[in-house]
Predict the structure.
Amino acid sequence: MFDRLQNNRKEWKALADEHEAKMKALEKKEEEESVAAKKVGTEICNGDPAPKSSTCCIL
């Protein structure tokens, strides 16, 4: 009986490790996407960062 419990524990540990690896990969991908989105939003206007206007940007 103890052997079966140990085996079950090993299987669940393997599944948990697999899930953790997937979550780390997903977090890394989301972080890269957010960094890329921040870089796209940074516009330069007359050598300075563009003003944060939601209606227009005067160049």
